[in-house]
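Q: Could you fold this chain for me?
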Amino acid sequence: MDDETHPKTLYVGNLSRDVTEILILQLFAQIGPCKSCKMITEHTSNDPYCFVEFFEHRDAAAALAAMNGRKILGKGVKVNWATTPSSQKKDTSNHFHVFVGDLSPEITTDDVTAAFAPFGKISNAHRIGQELEGLQQGTVHSGDSD
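A: Sure. Below is the predicted structure, expressed as structure tokens.
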């Protein structure tokens, strides 16, 4: 099995504010050699969390099974596989959806696209052909089309 294609980093959440990187490394290293630990404590309203990276996938998998739900300094921790930025959903904060109602029957998708073109890139425009209580409708989506 090619270990390079398997995850080696765990997310460890719901930590007590008294937990340190050193303590996490001491605990998780009992299961297998750890490469690193990065503690995130900057969110004042949320519990700290950390990422523990192992050298080997099998050690990370064993730590996931052994440590999820265990108490560290009185708090049951949540352990999951860490996700990478590439596996996160795409940022759609600059993507907008516009519903256009009460269109005349002769208005086409091309007409809707042309009407919104001056406002920026259009990733999709769709003229809905069915009538809704006698009114035609369409939608326009702007933003990246990826």
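A (continued): The two ends are 33 Å apart (CA to CA).
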